[in-house]
User: What shape does this take?
Amino acid sequence: MSAPGAATAIVEDRYPTRLGHAVEPIPRSEPVVWGGKADGPLPPHELARFDELGYLVRPGTLTDDLIGPLRGETDRIAVGLEPDDPRIIREPRGSIRSIFEPHLLSALVAQVVDLDTVLPIARQLLGSDVYIHQARINLMPGFTGTGFYWHSDFETWHAEDGMADIRAVSCSIALTRNYPYNGSLMVIPGSHHTFYPCVGATPDNHHGTSLVAQQVGTPDETTLCKAVDHHGIDQFTGSPGTALWFDANLLHGSGSNITPLPRSNVFLVFNSVDNRLGEPFAAPRPRPRYLAAR
Assistant: This one.
């Protein structure tokens, strides 16, 4: 992978958000798929599906010999960090919710980034070399794991990180089985073709609370109702080792896990090296590097 250069200032804001009043949704300006058949392993029908729906499920992304050790990396990483390390995000009851920058803290997670089933797909979808914008291990323990409210990641990355274009993609790789009832991810297929501006200014140090419960940067209920009426809702389920690839602008969320069955995943965000971050479009200052690598 290639590391991006220094951030450049970008003046034009084609996706205004965090406004004082509601505005109409904005049609997407950029392509969804930037590469073609010759640029990577995905065949034309999968590229077309990703373009249409904004997501793609790829079973067998991780082999069995990696899945077990990766499940143990959360505890190993946590032991090596100070209890108040900001890269550890905890649930209200104290259990770990996410660990950020695991690819810099674990050689095993770094190995996942470079897999032939991972990195070439990111390059193909984005049509360029890529770098890790953000990475984390997500945990949703049984009984206590809380969900993520509906949102578009790009809205946050645009507003708070200075990502100008929708040219990033996420890869969520299941480390446990995802059932329909243990808080697995839901997506609104096709919603990635539209940017939904949000109402409400970004509080200072918003990331201090939004990583546990996001309240600013989420569409209102009327907007969500219209989006679901038009597109419906799909849910990601599957066995350990299965990857869910989804566009940066796809609306998604998850419910809480009240079952005894835990859910965890390795979450990798790839950004194009041609989509370097500038100054935030709707926040007082950039977020820390462990949330938005520059």
Remarks:
- The chain is about 25% helix and 20% strand.
- Helices lie at 44-53, 64-79, 102-105, 107-113, 119-126, 153-161, 207-210, 221-231.
